[in-house]
Every structure is written in structure tokens, then in C-alpha cells.
């Protein structure tokens, strides 16, 4: 439904996005996650036909966005960071107005407006002036204006920014309910937002997509599979050798033994993707006559991945190389 290939955008001499490539299939909710200034808004403005790309192409439902910007706008509902609302109009009056300018024909308008009011939980506010609404309800009106012409694609730029925690939950649920057949891209710099609402997440950093996958897969794909922290009694070198021989162990680190009893040591074991040899680690230690006093398992979370990708230059470069080599292999 959405195909983005090698998009770049330069403002003057400043490169805002570089070689952004991704696809979104019909019915998917893709989260566009990145810190402030990463290039989310720029990408969304190109996709919606409001901004030309410097290089690359973007297609929505088969239409190249820049060459067919009017046709593309009919396929898209767009909620910019600041919703375009007329405060002196009532909610219903405003939605009728938007339906008209988006080309919904007169006969269909009452049905479309009623559907948008209902989807966004706005029926009771239909006669209220927009300026009298809370920020959360204003945001719902912003989403209602994006969907009033029943577009197959919805693009939401930071839809929960500035809302209180209750409003955030309501807007997230609303977005999930809009899914189904519709294809949705939402941008955010808030991690839980993508885990809770999206099927897939694209992490964007300094204008580049540095990872794209399901929230769960990202946790395991980019770092090793599982990690264990172990407190062992006995000779530390024997413990190290014993653990290193267990199948699946990829990396072993001896941690500081500060605060531990004299014969104790702490080790951190990282295992290969797709392996989880917890039982074998315990059995091997006991078989070597070592004492096992603590064993804690942890999985890399989306937060670990996001921090790793957006704070460590080396990790980003490694990921970019990995992406380049997988593209080479695919070519
Ligand atoms: N009109 C513009 N002229 C010059 N530079 C711009 C313009 N718009 C954005 N930029 C720069 O391009 C980069 C990407 O900005 P963009 O707004 O796309 O990021 P973002 O991820 O949406 O961030 P935010 O969440 O802060 O809006 C930033 O460095 C920004 O300063």
C-alpha cells in the first residue's frame, strides 16, 4: 500500500533524511519512532504530497506522491503535528466543511460525518464549538477530519503529544480501532506508544531508518538472544570455562565481585539469537561442582534496542552495514 524508496530531503545545505526505504502493507500500523529532529515529520510531509523529496520516490496505492499529489491526498487522511482546526466552528459543522473540501459528494456527507463522529467518540460533542473542547477532544476532532473522506491510508504525526495520560490511552485505543483494513503510519518519540499500537516499527535516527521490524522481533534481532546474570560459588576461571562450553553461549563477561562473599563471583552470559540454554547453564555449573546462588534471565527490550541504536554511533554503523550487506545479498 505504501512503498518508499531511497528518499532523501535536503533543506538548503541541511540533509534532513537520507536514503529512507520501507514498505507498509494494507492493514498494517507502522510506528515511526525517533528522537526529536530525526526526520519523522519530513518523511510524513513527503508522503502526504506536501513537500517534494530531493531524491527517491514514494508511492501510495500505486500513485507516485509528488506527480499525483491530488489523487494521493484523496487516498490519505493526514493529522499534522498541529491539527488544522477552526475554533469558531462546531465539531459537526467543521467535519461537514472538511468533507466538502475533500470532495465527498453532498449526498454522502451526512453519512461520512456521522461515521467520523462515531469512530472518534464525538457524538456528544457534535454541537460544541471547537475552541471549548479539551485538548484530548480537539485531537479526536483532528483525527476525525483526517478520516472523514474514508481514506485507506492514515498518517498521524505525533498524535498523542501534549495529552494527559488518560487522553493518551483513549487516543491510542482510537487509533487501534481505526486499523483493520486501513493502513496507518504514526510518528512518535514515545516508546510505549509503538509497542502498544503498532504491528511494526521503523526506528529513524539522524534521517536514516536504522531498523524496521515488529516490536517483539526488534528486541531479539539486533542484540543477542537472551542474557543471564549468574552468581556462582567456586573458582571463577573454572566457572568461566564451564559456561563457555555450553552450546549457545556467545559472550561471557566476569562482573565486579564487590560486595560478594569471598568465594563468589558474578558472570554475565549472552546467548546466540534463537537459543535459551538456561537449563544447560545450571546443569553444567552443578556438574563442575560449582555453587549456583543466583540466576537471572533478561530479554533485550525494544527500549534497549532504541537506546542502543540512537545513542551508540558504533551500533548504528554496525546496523547500517548489516542492512547494506543484506540488501547486497538480496540483489
Ligand atoms: N523547513 C525546514 N528548514 C530547514 N531545516 C528543517 C526544516 N524542517 C525540518 N528541518 C530540519 O530537518 C531535520 C528533521 O526534522 P523533522 O521535523 O523532520 O524531524 P522530526 O523527527 O519530525 O522531529 P520533531 O519530533 O522534533 O518534529 C531537523 O534537523 C530539522 O531541524
From TrEMBL:
InterPro entries: AAA+_ATPase (IPR003593), ABC_transporter-like_ATP-bd (IPR003439), P-loop_NTPase (IPR027417). Keywords: ATP-binding, Nucleotide-binding, Transport. CDD domains: ABC_DR_subfamily_A (cd03230). Residues 2-231 form the ABC transporter domain. One of its GO terms (molecular function) is ATP hydrolysis activity. Pfam families: ABC_tran. Belongs to the ABC transporter superfamily. This is MFS transporter. It comes from Neosynechococcus sphagnicola sy1.
